[in-house]
Amino acid sequence: MTSDMTARVLRLLSLLQTRREWSGADLADRLDVTVRTVRRDIDRLRELGYPVDSARGHTGGYRLAPGADLPPLLLDDDEAVAITVALRTAAGGLTGIEESALRALAKLEQVLPRRLRGRIAALQGSLAGITWESRGPRADPALLAALAVACRDHEIVAFDYADRHGATTSRRAEPCHLVDSGGLWYLLAHDTGKDDWRIFRLDRISDPAPTGRRVPPREIPGADPAAFVAARLSAAPTRYRAVATVRAPADHVRARTRYLGTRIRPVDGTSCRVDASDDSLPRIARTLAGLDTDYTLDADPDVLDHLRETAHRTLRATR
Fold first, then answer.
1. Which residues contact 199 (CB under 8 A, 6 or more apart)?
2. What's the pLDDT at 97?
3. Do 208 and 159 meet the contact criterion of CB atoms below 8 Å apart?
4. 159-to-168, 202, 223, 271 alpha-carbon distances in Å
């Protein structure tokens, strides 16, 4: 192939990697060539081993199909920088992914253009992370990937699920979305057995098995998966109850707290209620300590005892 043809075919491959399907006319317009030239370039990609599927019809359609091997990916400068930084800072709420991230990073950095290495080194050198507490339960990346495929294909999945008390039941559900909340991953799905929407923590899911049964996509209540999961989490039962009536507007409190979201409800223009209920007494104490204004508290006796002991300990330390 001539250099112009090579550049055009590489550009064609890059376009095919950015969208699920392209019409021949759209590709011709992007490449500034004829539809006939697009067809010839598609044939060249197939000769090089790229599995490109085509649809019959007047306009035709092309998509890069999955193959036996992962084909080379063409990245622009911003994409290469983003992926490199993401790999270097892996892996957040995932477990067992650090070694894989380092192998992928080594391959990517080996072929990075010199112009990008300086940008990435400067960016990475200026980044730092703080771990305030030990990591909690972490999701298996293989499980995350399998459920992501099920969400995309609208395929019912069977799995075992352990509740907050450790009791395990067999479930069948239609996966719809994966949602990350404070380092914990949740699956938003329609439970076929209960005929209702449910959220499942990924670290409590085991033995997932695709059923091969695909269903039409469902419309999520409110059309916002993250908001739906946040609302369900805020309404979930907790071991200890603690509700504070704060003498400040809801927006003021919301701007100064993390992870409370829907747990903050306005009472009027000058006050709001903050539901600090939790399974952990220290976390309740930290949430209440973060309120920067006066409040009254309606809480379980265990919460009140813990707060009194914490206050006494603080006073003894300041004497």
1. 179, 186, 187, 188, 189, 229, 232, 233
2. 62
3. yes
4. 10, 11, 26, 44
At CA 225, angle to CA 220 and CA 230, rounded to 5? 120
| Burial of residue 287, with CB atoms counted within 10 A of its CB: 0-12 exposed, 13-18 middle, 19 or more buried | buried
Per the CB < 8 A criterion, the answer to whether 151 and 185 are in contact is no
Question: What's the confidence (pLDDT) of residue 67?
Answer: 63
Residue 65, helix vs strand vs coil: coil
Contact 184, 203 (CB under 8 A): yes
Q: Lowest-pLDDT range, 81-85, 142-146, 147-151, 256-260?
A: 256-260
Whole-model pTM over 0.70: no
Kindly state the helix (H) or strand (E) to which residue 98 belongs, with its residue range.
Answer: helix 98-111
Return d(Cα 198, Cα 234) in angstroms, integer: 14
What CA–CA distance (Å, rounded) separates 31 from 25?
A: 10
Q: Tell me the helix, strand and coil percentages in the chain, rounded to 5.
A: 45, 25, 30
What is the per-residue DSSP string for 9-64? HHHHHHHHTTSS-B-HHHHHHHHTS-HHHHHHHHHHHHHTT--EEEE-SSS-EEEE
> Which pLDDT score, from 0 to 100, does residue 60 have?
59
Residue 149: partners with Cβ closer than 8 Å, 6 or more residues away: 155
Q: Are 284 and 295 in contact (CB under 8 A)?
A: no
Cβ-contact 56, 97 below 8 angstroms: no
